[in-house]
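Tokens for chain A. Residues wanted.
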């Protein structure tokens, strides 16, 4: 934490175990002329600018001719898809690309030095709220916070700037190429399921339009999403480049004796007696339809199959869905069959995915569907929406349904629960199909895209 009561000649340290010490001069909190960061072996000495808006942390130096690439990582603290993509691909990118210089721009509320790759510079910007909290369904980032981000970037000499997601976009005034990530068109295709009021939708459309207008290149995460962007916005296909998402290495097939029964017991499930959903609890995820499909077949089975829902329960960043879902569960008498796990760390989630019969993702649409890919990496089949890249990606490793056809979802669940041979075969195929995906491969795709854009 910054101590704003200190005098202008004092300093404080932020320690990152085993990595480096960030030393910040307290004079950054006072109007003064500001110097650039100094380098000292093993120590990042950070100086703030006179406007007291941000400070920089130089943790790596590269020699020779290099592109200076800035990256917005204010979505880093988002625990869902945008954040997982940003963390996965940026960590690998700065690790594998030692030719060019990377500066990561992050808000102070999200900044924890040990979480960020030490191969890059960190530029930490003081904002009144984390963008992951402020850029929500019912709120928006304040204009002063947006201007602070813009100002921090404008102080840098950059050859390229990259936004992993339009979700945290802000105007960039630098005269350099800009790459903006657009992961899907769900907000445009299903606005009533994303925004609780028209004002939120209008603000999103305004931000998205400005971001895409400023972008020299649009990045997305699948060919499916690329086609949707062309359909909805009319952008030229050649302007849109695809960077794959990938499962974290922790997600892998476990042997039966490796599955931690204490993790299962903590969530009141046992091996092979439950379906799992992982993601946000939002209307476009179509979870009431999933509960209704399970309730419709409950009497036809001698043993009840449970549904484990993994996702944040304390906050809903885009639109309320939890209250309505709980009400529907109660009206169906499914309280004992549906379990809310809340957020589960990956080291536990891998055991749940390995033990589940299938992961179910009945969303109206998915730009990628990362939870399904993580499930497939564990050898667990998927029931998921056809309105996604998953049928192309996983092939016969899953059952693909029309999210607006309840009977298709019921039949898919029946197939998984009642046909163990088919369930096992689909799991093996799914695991084989995702073996080619890794954040290292995605980082190499992104490296090529950024280098090509930066040389323009």
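Reply:
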């Amino acid at each position: 934490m910054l101590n704003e009561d200190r005098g202008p000649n004092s300093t404080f340290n932020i320690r990152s175990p085993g990595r480096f010490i960030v030393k910040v001069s307290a004079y950054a909190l006072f109007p003064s002329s500001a110097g650039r960061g100094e380098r000292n072996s093993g120590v990042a000495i950070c100086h703030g600018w006179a406007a007291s808006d941000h400070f920089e942390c130089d943790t790596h130096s590269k020699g020779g001719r290099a592109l200076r690439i800035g990256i917005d990582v204010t979505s880093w603290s988002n625990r869902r898809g945008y954040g997982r993509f940003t963390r996965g691909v940026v960590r690998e990118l700065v690790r594998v690309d030692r030719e060019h210089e990377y500066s990561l721009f992050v808000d102070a509320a999200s900044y924890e030095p040990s979480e960020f790759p030490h191969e890059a510079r960190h530029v930490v910007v003081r904002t009144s709220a984390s963008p992951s909290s402020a850029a929500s369904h019912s709120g928006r980032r304040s204009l002063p916070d947006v201007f602070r981000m813009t100002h921090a970037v404008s102080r840098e000499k950059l050859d390229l700037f990259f936004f992993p997601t339009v979700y945290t976009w802000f105007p960039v005034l630098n005269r350099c190429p800009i790459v903006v990530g657009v992961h899907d068109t769900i907000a445009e295709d299903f606005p009533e399921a994303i925004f609780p009021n028209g004002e939120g939708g209008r603000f999103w459309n305004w931000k998205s339009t400005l971001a895409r207008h400023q972008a020299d290149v649009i990045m997305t995460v699948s060919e499916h999403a690329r086609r949707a962007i062309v359909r909805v916005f009319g952008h030229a296909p050649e302007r849109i480049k695809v960077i794959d998402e990938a499962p974290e290495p922790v997600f892998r097939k476990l042997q039966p004796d490796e599955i931690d029964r204490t993790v299962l017991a903590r969530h009141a499930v046992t091996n092979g007696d439950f379906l799992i959903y992982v993601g946000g609890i939002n209307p476009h995820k179509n979870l009431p339809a999933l509960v209704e499909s399970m309730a419709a077949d409950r009497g036809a089975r001698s043993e009840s199959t449970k549904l484990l829902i993994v996702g944040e329960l304390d906050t809903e960043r885009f639109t309320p869905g939890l209250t309505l879902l709980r009400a529907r569960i109660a009206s169906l008498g499914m309280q004992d069959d549906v379990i809310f796990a809340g957020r589960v760390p990956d080291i536990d989630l891998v055991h749940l995915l390995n033990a589940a019969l299938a992961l179910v993702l009945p969303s109206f649409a998915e730009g990628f569907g990362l939870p399904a890919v993580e499930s497939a990496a564990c050898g667990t089949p998927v029931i998921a929406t056809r309105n996604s890249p998953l049928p192309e990606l996983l092939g016969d490793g899953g059952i693909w349904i029309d999210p607006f056809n309840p009977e298709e979802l019921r039949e898919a669940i029946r197939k998984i629960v009642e046909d163990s041979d088919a369930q096992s075969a689909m799991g093996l195929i799914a695991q084989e199909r995702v073996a080619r995906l890794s954040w290292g491969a995605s980082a190499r795709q992104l490296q090529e895209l950024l280098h090509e854009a930066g040389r323009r």
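The radius of gyration is 23 Å. The mean pLDDT is 85.
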